[in-house]
Amino acid sequence: QGPCSRCCCPAPHGGEVRPMGRIDSRAKASSQVCQVLGSKTTTAGGSGTQLQWPRGGPQAIADALVRGLRKHGGKLLLNSHVTGVIEGPGGRAAGVQLKGGGQITATKAVVSNASLWDTDRLVPEQARLPDFERQASYSTPSDSFVHLHAVIDLPAHLDPQQLPVHTYYLAPELVGDTGWPTLTISTAIDSSLAPPGKQVLHAYMAE
């Protein structure tokens, strides 16, 4: 058994957990995301399940996405500040306007990874959908949280491979609306993420 996750107090699950089954490819994109997340969540606490860490860290995931993008003819543009969404025929998104005067046209759609409120401001007022406007009006930002990233020394008698990758603190007084305190030691999986003899520690604390 390799490094795994552990909790510092019991976390009982109420009710029966049922697998989600296969994903319906005909469903709306938002529904598919919910199905995938639901499926993974229901199996996360199963016997023998381990929550691990990607080799190479989160950067490895970003690098893989970029490789896939370029493999299919896409381009990655950095330092390209978007100032607005361009409205096309019928009120559909036709591209984005860049700071400095440049434009990027869209053949099918514009996908925004900005926040709900930032996306709302980028879309021309006359093109905003009523349902989206209502969602933006009643949605509220989540509470703040703290991330700490540190490089630490490991005592000589400890083997990095025996360290838990994730440790969760689930005591009721520590759990907030944005989650619970979590410690992650990614070098328990991939020692290349830190100099020799050092370990990478990530601490997350919800308010």
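Second entry:
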Amino acid sequence: MKAPSLVGVFQMLTSTTCFALMSAASKLVGLQATTFEKIFWRQVAVLCFTLVGQFCSGSEESQCAVGRPKKPWLMLLRGLFGHFALSAYLEAIERLPLAQAVFLGKIHPLAAALLAWVFLREPLDASRVLAILASLAGVALISSPVKDGLSIDVVGVGLGLFAGVLSGAAYVCVRALKCSGETSFWVLLAFPLVSIPFCLRDAWLGVLHR
């Protein structure tokens, strides 16, 4: 198996940090905006950054590499999985302590490993299986519906786990898109292009009421 590059590790750490900051911002905003409002503005930002990065890079090769998507149905799946994963995740943040919601959402590597093994035939050796089982045991402990005699929101826990599984499915779609030769431009745009239409109504009402 190919060893991960330092650049790849740095990108994953940066992504995780940014996602944690987004989670904290969503918790701070709270009920002042609906889940779909938050998703809408996040996706608009992603769309803008992607377009600016693609067309302002100064590279003729990057500007000519857009073309048409090779796997539109797979892009649709990536967008749907991502949209519903993010929706469930932000709802879980409103129902649970931030640390718990973030932890539950982090089962996505486990889901991605299993789904990649099933659908992409990626290797899953014994050490990974043991790590997955140990991680699932940890998730089960921290998501227990009773803690210190206090009831914890079972719906919130379920949403957090659901978000993690769907995020794993979205990552598998990204892997499949890259393996099919899809450009990074379309892989990045798949999420906002599918997600934004779901959020337009809430975003418009939010603007009118402010």
